[in-house]
Amino acid sequence: MLNALAAERARIAELEARILDPDLTFYDKNAKKLWKRALQIEIALAQERLDSYKYPVLTLPNEIVSEIFVHFLPAYPICPPLIGLLSPTTLTHICRRWREIALATPALWRAINLSGNDAPGPRYGPGFIAISVAPSFRRGRVLDMISRSRSCSLSIRMDEWDNTSKEVETAAELLRAVIPSVARWEYLTLYLDETHLPPFPAPMPLLCQLELWLGDGSPTARAAKVELPEMPLLRTVILNDAVAARNVNLPWE
Fold first, then answer.
1. Burial tier of 6 (Cβ tally within 10 Å: 0-12, 13-18, 19+)
2. Cβ pair 155, 187 in contact under 8 A
3. Under 8 Å between Cβ of 67 and 40
4. How do residues 49-69 score in pLDDT, each as one tens digit?
């Protein structure tokens, strides 16, 4: 069937080229008009056959398409890039039907990457490309994802901010943007300089895994203890450096 469609497209292109061919001559204007009209009718019929074809993927039920979309993303709770070809937003740019399905699938928007460069790192595969975006755009995208995720539990990730005042300000702004959804946080990963760590909101009733990286243990590292709020479902804590291990008070200690 696809070969037939390709042949139809080639035929249309050929007929259109013949109509525009300046080297063709006719014995009178009426003959040229009739010839041109005949080709236009043939083009219209070929285009009608093309338009009547339904691609198999567009005949799938919305529920199946939605499930395919979910498998397009990394397995939850891994967070896909916020923007770019591997972000869930890509699925809204294909056609109107796919956009409607994507926006109606909360599971697509439940893993939110707040990272400054939208690149979770090499451990998540070579497809993640660093892309720099304006802080206001990033914040808007984060708010959109929180809204589209509806009542789903969330995976939040902030990874490796640069030690510049601009990035600190952006980090704080993005963290404030996600705070209202704290009751839905299920996985939280923060790779931050110890001076960037905000106070933890309370409570976090669904949080089951917390991962922290707070610095390199230098003499200027954070001295104050990090008090964790109520997290009744917390089962896994990953403290990736000496600063976090020394200063985080676990709820079961």
1. exposed
2. yes
3. no
4. 888 887 788 889 999 999 999
